């Protein structure tokens, strides 16, 4: 039986001070991710969408508005990244690992100063899925544990913090996040340790 769905904010601030631009990280669902006014008020310039079954048209000024069956293309006022995990079983565990490095890359990219890259480096970031209760919770928990280990020495500590900040109630915890996503985050944490150890041996910053 599913837990009751409780009212909670469209987006929730989870942690501050993420390197290298002192960014704040938020979690939200569909309504938060599609509200560009809300994103602007919170200084959110990066959105990472975890959901395979949720697409948002972020193109604000299409370059080809009259192209018939062709999809709109153009720039958005945000940098938008799509991961595409399933809310439950079905996604390879390596997708959680990929999501970690997508989020890390979004925060650490140094963007070319050219007309075709109309973005600033850094900014606050929103990680979203459909309701901000499972896929985004598992990914952000993994990221907090690896990037702020002084605050979140274990994945469980990071998830507990997110549950509090996102107003996830105890009778929801069995699915916030879903157990298979929690397990994927645990395995990804171990893989990240191996990858980063190899990077250190190779002298990669």
TrEMBL record:
Classify the source by domain of life: Bacteria
Which PROSITE patterns does the protein's record reference?
Answer: TYR_PHOSPHATASE_2
Signal peptide residues are none
Q: Where is the Tyrosine specific protein phosphatases domain?
A: 120-166
Indicate what this protein is called per its UniProt record.
Dual specificity protein phosphatase family protein
Species in which this protein is naturally found? Ferranicluibacter rubi
């Amino acid at each position: 039986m599913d837990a009751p769905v409780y009212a909670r904010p469209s987006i929730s601030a989870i942690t501050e001070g993420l390197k290298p631009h002192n960014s704040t990280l938020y979690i939200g669902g569909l309504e938060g991710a599609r509200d560009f006014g809300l994103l602007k008020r919170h200084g959110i310039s990066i959105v990472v969408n975890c959901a395979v079954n949720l697409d948002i048209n972020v193109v604000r000024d299409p370059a080809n508005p009259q192209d018939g069956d062709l999809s709109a293309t153009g720039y958005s006022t945000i940098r938008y990244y799509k991961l595409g995990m399933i809310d439950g079983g079905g996604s390879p565990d390596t997708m959680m690992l990929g999501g970690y490095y997508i989020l890390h890359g979004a925060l650490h990219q140094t963007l070319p100063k050219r007309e075709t890259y109309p973005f600033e480096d850094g900014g606050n970031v929103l990680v979203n899925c459909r309701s901000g209760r499972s896929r985004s919770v598992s990914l952000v928990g993994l990221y907090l544990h690896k990037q702020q280990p002084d605050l979140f020495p274990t994945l469980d500590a990071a998830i507990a913090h997110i549950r509090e900040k996102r107003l996830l109630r105890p009778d929801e915890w069995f699915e916030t996040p879903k157990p298979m996503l929690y397990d994927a985050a645990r395995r990804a944490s171990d893989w990240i340790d191996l990858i980063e150890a190899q990077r250190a041996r190779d002298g990669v910053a």
